[in-house]
Amino acid sequence: MSTEENFVALLKKMSAYSEAVSIMYWDMRTGAPKKGIPARSEAVGTLSTELFKMSVSEEMGGYLEELGNRKDTLNPILLKTVEEVKKEYDLSKKIPAEEYREFVVLTSQSESAWEEAKEKADFDMFLPYLEKIVATTKKFIGYWGEKDGNPYNTLLDQYEPGMTTDIIDEVFGQLKETIVPLVKKISESGNQPDTSFLFKKFPKENQKAFSHEILKQLGYDFDAGRLDETVHPFATGINIGDVRITTKYDENDFRSAVFGTIHECGHALYEQNIDLELEGLPVADGTSMGIHESQSLFYEQFVGHNENFWTYNFDLLKSQSPEQFEGVALEDVLRAINVSKPSLIRIEADELTYPLHIMIRYEIEKGIFNGDYEVVDLPEIWNDKYEEYLGIRPKNNGEGILQDVHWAGGSFGYFPSYALGYMYAAQLKVAMLKDLPNFDELCGNGDFGPILDWLTEHVHKYGKMKQPLEIIKDTTGEGLNAKYLADYLSEKYTKLYNL
Amino acid sequence: MSTEENFVALLKKMSAYSEAVSIMYWDMRTGAPKKGIPARSEAVGTLSTELFKMSVSEEMGGYLEELGNRKDTLNPILLKTVEEVKKEYDLSKKIPAEEYREFVVLTSQSESAWEEAKEKADFDMFLPYLEKIVATTKKFIGYWGEKDGNPYNTLLDQYEPGMTTDIIDEVFGQLKETIVPLVKKISESGNQPDTSFLFKKFPKENQKAFSHEILKQLGYDFDAGRLDETVHPFATGINIGDVRITTKYDENDFRSAVFGTIHECGHALYEQNIDLELEGLPVADGTSMGIHESQSLFYEQFVGHNENFWTYNFDLLKSQSPEQFEGVALEDVLRAINVSKPSLIRIEADELTYPLHIMIRYEIEKGIFNGDYEVVDLPEIWNDKYEEYLGIRPKNNGEGILQDVHWAGGSFGYFPSYALGYMYAAQLKVAMLKDLPNFDELCGNGDFGPILDWLTEHVHKYGKMKQPLEIIKDTTGEGLNAKYLADYLSEKYTKLYNL
């Protein structure tokens, strides 16, 4: 066999392991009996370790070296594959094995410590762990090397290849200028929607039926996926023909299931529509966290919160919970599901205030790695920023800096993806309108096929064959631009609140 | 690390692979989306291949040799583990790799050929495959070596360690003497039960509720398992804390789900109650096909068909399908669910005629490997035996010799386990009565705990730490004895049919 064939064979073997690990995770989260979990976790650990060993093996190193030395002889898929695998290989190999092992132990202890600290709202309990994690991450950045003169870029690039603080500073700055005053105006507006009917009982079985119907409308392929229930919704691509989603049914707030399902559907449509030619290779995956999030947010916000979407689906919604919507007009629903109110907890935030939560985390992370902030000072910095951007201040660190697990797990550079995805989505939407000027009409007719086709053609099918900013450039003709999201939010909320 | 520790580490690693493969199989059969199946099958193939490689690796060979040379230094669990692993190792290593590979290809082609042949009821289409499979199996027996002077014993031993044609000839002979005349008398009896109400509609959701309730009664631990739906019911032990069962709901015949569930429950209780000390080792499994089947049949026949079991559960049954049982007395149900009638298809046979189907297959397999029968003559031999034992003759080979897939897959020596399990179960039941003389009363009170405890104490907890006949000897004080099953069937059917 040629080196190419051996390389692909090794990758496909790794893909089998990764498929096994994915299905075991899915199973643990959707219904595995609890007494089987300890043995299951060990099994997952064993297979993950084997997978890691293969990824940094001498065999792998040999292939990467040979193929890397003659890139001009590789077809485009193999070329991209070599680059992607090499990137991961280097990330792993540049850290001394013993230091990496210590870091894994540290983050695991740190997550436990965080859990207790959060419950007790006691930052001091978590402080020594966070300090060590930050120190180690700084050391790792030293091994990996700074990107474009900024240590934080090294972390950003791991989740969003090609993304830099220069770009983010600019787009977040622009976005902030629109959102902060909007939020303030809304808070002060006397024109608040009635949301009381949202919290009436909507039976779980009916939410399930509604979710299934919406998924079918949007083009989710049930022959290549399934919908289950979990505490925390997620989408998982096990292979291109098996992309599962889960949702959460709250009988006293149907929005959780409806928008959760649509959000995960956006993630799933991305992975269901990757070109089958890429199957079994590492390039058969979303190209970045941000682009992945752009697809989920595109569906959640630009389709699921579209007025015509609800014109089309209001009867269906009512039929699944008739009492709840008695005397409620479509317009009431539209106002209620788009309510905006500053809040302290990121995962409960609405679509207008959400980006502010992200900006705060971004600014803090950048400050940490650029040496502007000391870890011990972070709670105060956090609280000040909430007051500045959202006009509210956490009463304690439990509802402040301790609310998210990311830092305890050593994930820095991940948060920005959430807001980047939102901006990508808005920008893609404007580009889509050029090809589908009848977008609203399509939503009003429940004709979502052309929307999915467009996204598949411009985003999905490529998998990792294009970088995030390449997709944006090729599709919209420019780099990331915050204007589109700013315009969208501004127009939408001005209208909704009659500002 | 010591050799012992290295050996156990390798086995636990294999156990992780095997856990992954089990969960992937379970998933494929219970609800994996169909478009993901090709990639999933490849992943299962990859992991199974790796598992096989480990099982015959030089590393494994080295451990087995060293530990086999100093068995007196091993603790009982490790000693048994070495013996079990060595047995499998030898089975695999004695066949030249290329011949084994060819055999795998042959059986795979043969299964496809069988499928078509069965559909067309055309034995000639299947004949060349079956001849090759038999010839190859004979060659393999040559490699493995004859057991106790009989080539067929070599095959029996793979499913039922220690079992020989001498033992089976005796017990099957004894059983036949009871069953054949009984079946004849019943066929000629004018006292046939009314079974018409069995086939009335029993809604699936209610069958599900009933199944769950029965499982709880019998002691199935839902924290260590779950019940799902499949076309062919099965139980699968993923680890000791995760033993899942599936059943099939036929709305026009509730017996399928009820007795299917109880049968699989018997298998599952076995694996849920293996001593946790054995977890992760190959000895943490049922000791043989026959003993496994003894547990499923114990529950299906001796509990699930017990008169008092239904006294206790009749109200529950009625409440789940009130119309169906209007005007039906408990006695009618008992007679109907115990109806016996000779039939041609093994998997549809009742509990009285079932052993005859097994005996026919056993006699034919023995005849093949002892050189008494030629493959080409088998259809005629098959049909003659059905006429002799059951008084009916297949009209074609589709409902005759082609009905089962086992031989197409190269499984010879497996069939007897079904009837052995039945005899083990009857023998265990009589032994249990000495400790639990109030067995019927327990069933009548829905108090199944003591029954499960007894089986755990005498059978389940040992896993593979005892051989099948060792369990029977230790528990009942004698070897396998067909008398108990013969007596049970004789007494039961004489009473039911007023013979």
UniProtKB/TrEMBL annotation, chains A, B:
Q: What is its EC number?
A: 3.4.17.19
> Keywords in UniProt for this one?
Carboxypeptidase, Hydrolase, Metal-binding, Metalloprotease, Protease
Stored Pfam families: Peptidase_M32
Could you tell me one molecular function GO term of this UniProt entry?
Answer: carboxypeptidase activity
Q: Which Gene3D superfamilies match?
A: 1.10.1370.30
| Catalysed transformations (reactions) | Release of a C-terminal amino acid with broad specificity, except for -Pro
Family according to the record:
Belongs to the peptidase M32 family.
**Main role?**
Broad specificity carboxypetidase that releases amino acids sequentially from the C-terminus, including neutral, aromatic, polar and basic residues.
Q: What is this protein called?
A: Metal-dependent carboxypeptidase
Organism source for this protein? Sporosarcina psychrophila (Bacillus psychrophilus)
Upper taxonomic lineage? Bacteria, Bacillati, Bacillota, Bacilli, Bacillales
